[in-house]
Structure formats: C-alpha cells, structure tokens
Design a protein that fits this description.
The complex is a heterodimer of chains A (about 300) and B (about 270).
Chain A: E1 6-8, E2 11-13, E3 17-19, E4 40-45, E5 58-61, E6 64-67, H1 76-83, E7 94-98, H2 103-112, E8 120-124, H3 141-154, E9 159-163, H4 170-179, E10 184-187, E11 191-194, E12 196-197, E13 202-203, E14 209-213, H5 218-231, E15 236-238, H6 245-253, E16 258-261, H7 264-267, H8 271-286
Parallel strand pairs in A: 3-16, 4-7, 7-8, 8-9, 9-10, 10-15, 15-16
Antiparallel strand pairs in A: 1-2, 5-6, 6-14, 11-14, 12-13
Chain B: E1 2-13, E2 18-24, E3 37-41, E4 54-57, E5 60-62, E6 67-73, H1 77-82, E7 90-97, E8 109-115, H2 118-131, E9 135-142, H3 151-156, E10 160-165, H4 173-187, E11 191-195, H5 198-211, E12 215-218, E13 234-238, E14 244-248, E15 255-257
Parallel strand pairs in B: 8-9, 8-11, 9-10, 11-12
Antiparallel strand pairs in B: 1-2, 1-7, 2-6, 3-4, 3-7, 5-6, 12-15, 13-14
The chains are: A alpha/beta (about 300), B alpha/beta (about 270).
C-alpha cells in the first residue's frame, strides 16, 4: 500500500496529480471520476468578460502544440453561479485560476473568488496570450511579487503562483513570489512561439503568437522546475509536457511535490488516471512507501562509476 | 462516453475521393445520435504524425450490429494515416461527442441539403426521421454523379433523393433554390438541415427567414480535445444581443441553429 497523499501549500491532496489550468472543463466529469485526481483546477477567470483570441487558435506539431486561446472568460459572477456548482459533488479540492490586468484587479478577483468550494487560488501571472505583445506580470520578479502580496492580503486561501517560462532566470521569479507569501509555485505555463502559414503569407494563429506545450517542452520545463525547486522552500508543482507516469516521475525526482497534466488531457481524456496508477505502480516496484519521498529523489551521478550500485 | 478500441472491419474507396470506414463498436459507442461526432486517434505513420485526434461525424450508426461507419475525404495528415488502416487493425475512438440534431416529432417534412462530406453527416438524420415517421427529402450536391455517395442508403431508409451535380449543370444556386422553394411551397417542407457548403448555408438561411422555417446546420472546425476543454475550435455565431460570440463547435455544437451560424468567408 503506497501512501499517495501529498500536502501542497496548506492543502492536503489524495495524490499529486491534477490538471493544468485551461486543460479541463465540465466535460471531463463525463469521462472520468473527478474524485480520483489530486485536485480540480479550473480555467482562468478574469474580472472582465473576454471572448479570447480570434481563430485559428491552434497549430499542431509531431510532439506538441502551439495554442493561442486568449483566456475566454465569463467573469467571476458567472464562475460562481455556473462553473463552481459542477464540481460541488466531488470531494477533490478545487483550485481556481485567476488573472487580471492590474495588481488591484488581481486583489479584487481573488477576494471575490474566495468563495465556498474554492480551496486554492492559483495566480495566472504567466499566460503568454494576454495583450501587450505577450508580456505578463510573470516576466518581472517585482511585478510578480506585487501581485502575490496583494492576493495574499485579499484572501484566507492558499495562493499558488503559476510561473511563465518566458524569462531568463525563473528561479529569481520563484524566489520573489515565495518572499511575497506564495504557498506554492507551478512551473510552468506555455513557452511563447509562433508559426507562419506560408501558403497564404500570414500568421498561422489569429493571435500571431501562442503558447507551446506538449511533450516537446518537457526537457526545458523540467530543467526550470529543477532550478526552481533548488531556489525555494515552498512546494513546486511541475507542469510541462507530462503525458505518462514516467514523465511525472521526472518532475517529482527533480524536486516537485506534485504535477499538472495539461495538453495530454486533450488527446487521452483519462491520462491523469494512467499517471496516478503508473506512479503508484512505480512506488510499489521500487519499495517507496510514500509518494512524497520521491520529491527531490534524484541522486547525483558524480562519484559513481558504471555498474556500481548507488 | 469513453475512449474505446474498435476493430476496423472495412476501409475502402467509394470513389476517387472518399473512403468508407466501418468499425466494430459493440462496446456501446454505437449509441451516437445523428450529428454527433467521434474523435479518432489517427495512427502515426512515418512523417505523418497527427498530434491531436481528428473529429469525424458519423455516417451510419448500426445499433443492431454495433457498428459505426464514417465517410471521409483525405485532406491532411490525420485522414492520410486513417486511410492506411486495414481490416483487423485497431482504432482508438473517443465519443460520441457534441450536440446532434434536434428532430422534433412535430416536423412533417425535413428538407436536407448537403454537399461533399456533408452528405455523410446528414445521412443519419434521414434514418432517424424515417423511424420517427417524418418525411425527408435530401438534395445531394456533388461534383459529378459518382460523388453522390449516400443516395442508395438514403432511399433505403425512406428518404426521397434529388441529386444535383456540377458536371450535369444542375447544382447551381438558382437551380437548388427552385428545388427548395418547390419543396416548401408544394410539398410542405417545414425544417431545413444542411452541412458542407457555405453557399447552401446562406441559401437556406435566406429561404428559412423568408418562409419562417427553422433549421439546423452541422459545422466543421479543426479541434483539439473535442470535449469542450481546450477552446481551440471556436467559431463566430450570432448571439441574443444582436452581436456575435465565439462558441465551441465541439461542445455547443457541432449542430447549431441555422440562423445563428455565420458562413465563413472561403
């Protein structure tokens, strides 16, 4: 019997696997039992109603996708009245992702969405599809810290900060949000990219740029998760190209306490269940009693020769 | 609704453009309603590596034998590798998904007008209408007589079939308009369904508004998840406030009210 439970920034989860924000919706409950996953993470809510980016919104590659969705949102009132009730019947903690154009607005929406049924607020300071040429709060450690400080002052719920990978020193941003009071960091959102429809001499995406996600991103985001985990004491949630249990184990071993499965939910809607079962099977095979013992379990190679037992 | 591994029973050309795929869906996938779709995990073959699934509307739902049938044209990576499947191969099928046609029993005479692969999407409508005792006339528009694929099937489920083709010079907008007007004015046509052509969509919107006849259209759009989660497949639709809004084709559709749909430009 493997103890699969983890504790992330003040919240107990029955296992370390949850969806990335924007990769699940009500439809997932038709396909699988949401009681089985570690947390429910809802799509980012913004203060204003947003239609999102003009289509086309997606370009696919062999091992990943470039998407510019642009956070379509119906606003916080709609979220409380229409979205939250869908998840009331599950005993899985609900993480509400929020974003806003200003620090004040981040505070206001955080207060508003600290509603019954919301266990955690995740700050989307990293979505690359916001206006201003893809720039976001998350690209600046100081701006990120201001957002988190304001959010912490506006709620009694734990606040997780979802970082953007579109920075040179992601550890510095992680440290800044930790100092500002973040209870955990999620590493990371999509990497900015673009594609051209050469036949028609135009950008392939309606928004020109988008967020690159999927398996192709895993080595890059994994490296960032490792850097972040070494830089902060708060839990790190790894998120980037996780499709299988093996992928999730990489993130746990470099120091993550939990993982988010994102793009893979679009291809195999029950992917998270396979990741959970696969992590548990790995623990049994390796004699790991508690999944939290895998966090940071990667051992240094130096000093070891081939064939020598660790 | 779930992911199912289905055995391929048949995957052959019906003419120079379209293939007909039949899979064994005895596990229950054959519950699909007309207009719903399945999200198919097309195989990876060499350089052709479809990352996302491909949505495909159902051509025939054979509940008795537990079979699903699809009619498709090879247009990109997904359908290219789908075309390589042979009897005995497995195909991972997710669905049925989306909102299908609403065939109220109060309809008397459904007029369906389809072109290209839209013929496949509308075939189950005729089958359902037949079971409900609703008369159906299907105007099938195609490049040439050999591309009118579903005529025999539609007749076998009780629909009256009118084939119009480019090669015979019978498919132009004015000719189709005369046919539809005659079906409404002389034969009691009281509901329009369409798929596969902007020109036909605009025509039916105009005639529907003129005669005060309702209708539905099945829309197509490249999709990510097919299950309302990724918001990649949105299109513009007329909303209640007199403007337009993006709606998810996979979740709010793929079947939409005829007058809410907006014909795309190309």
């Amino acid at each position: 019997m493997v103890d699969m439970s983890v504790r992330i920034g003040g919240v107990a989860l029955k296992n370390p696997v949850m969806p990335g924000s924007g990769t699940m919706a009500e439809g997932l409950a038709r396909v699988m039992d949401l009681n089985r996953i570690g947390a429910i993470v809802t799509k980012t809510v913004t203060p204003d109603r947003r239609e999102g980016c003009p289509p086309p919104r997606m370009v696919e590659y062999k091992d990943g996708s470039l998407m510019a969705i642009g956070i379509p949102s119906q606003g916080p009132d709609y979220y409380i009245a229409e979205i939250l009730p869908h998840y009331r019947s599950f005993d899985t903690p609900l993480v509400c992702s929020v974003s806003a154009p200003t620090v004040d607005a981040f505070g206001a929406i955080t207060a508003k969405l600290s509603a019954p049924g919301v266990a955690v607020i995740e700050a989307n300071i990293s979505c690359p599809n916001l206006e201003s040429d893809g720039k976001a709060f998350g690209m600046d450690p100081e701006a990120s810290a201001r957002v988190i400080r304001r959010m912490k002052a506006s709620t009694d719920r734990p606040v997780w900060a979802k970082l953007t990978p579109n920075v040179t020193d992601i550890a510095a941003v992680a440290q800044a949000v930790e100092d500002a009071g973040a209870d955990a960091v999620t590493c990371a959102n999509g990497m900015l990219g673009m594609a051209v429809d050469v036949e028609n001499f135009q950008p392939a995406l309606g928004n020109i740029t988008g967020g690159m996600t999927g398996s192709c991103m895993r080595p890059v985001i994994l490296r960032m998760a490792w850097q972040v985990a070494r830089a902060v004491k708060i839990p790190v949630i790894g998120s980037g190209g996780i499709a299988t249990a093996r992928d999730a184990l990489e993130y746990l071993m470099v120091g993550c306490a939990a993982v988010q499965v994102g793009t893979q939910n679009f291809i195999h809607a029950t992917a998270m269940l396979d990741v959970i079962d696969g992590i548990e099977a790995f623990c049994r095979r390796k004699g790991v009693a508690r999944v939290r013992d895998l966090t940071g379990a990667m051992r240094p190679r130096h000093g070891l020769r081939e064939g020598q037992a660790a | 609704m779930a992911e199912t591994l289905c055995r391929v029973l048949h995957n052959d050309w019906v003419n120079d453009t379209y293939k007909h795929l039949i899979v064994d869906a005895a596990h229950g996938a054959a519950r699909a309603a007309p207009g719903q779709f399945f999200h198919l995990l097309c195989p990876v073959i060499g350089e052709n590596a479809p990352f996302f699934r491909r949505p495909m509307s159902v051509y025939r739902i054979d509940k008795a034998q537990g079979r699903l049938e699809f009619l498709y044209k090879i247009v990109g990576r997904g359908t290219t590798t789908l075309a390589t499947l042979a009897p005995g191969d497995e195909l991972n099928v997710f669905g049925p998904l989306g909102r299908g046609f609403r065939l109220g029993a109060d309809r008397k005479h459904i007029v369906q007008v389809a072109r290209g692969v839209g013929l496949a999407t509308l075939a189950p409508v005729a089958e359902s209408a037949g079971r409900l005792g609703i008369r159906t006339t299907a105007i099938l528009s195609a490049r040439s007589p050999e591309h009118v694929m579903s005529a025999d099937y539609l007749r076998s489920v009780g629909a009256e079939v009118v084939a119009v083709t480019d090669s015979e010079g019978t498919s132009d907008a004015a000719a189709v308009e005369r046919r539809v007007r005659s079906l409404v004015e002389r034969d009691g046509g009281d509901f329009f369904v369409t798929c596969g052509s902007n020109r036909l969509l605009r025509l039916l919107q105009r005639l529907g508004a003129e005669y005060g006849i309702g209708g539905e259209v099945a829309m197509e759009q490249p999709m990510g998840c097919g299950n309302g989660m990724c918001f990649a497949c949105v299109g513009s639709f007329r909303n209640d406030e007199g403007g337009t809004s993006y709606r998810r084709v996979c979740w709010d559709g793929p079947v939409f009210d005829l007058q809410e749909a907006i014909a795309w430009s190309t």
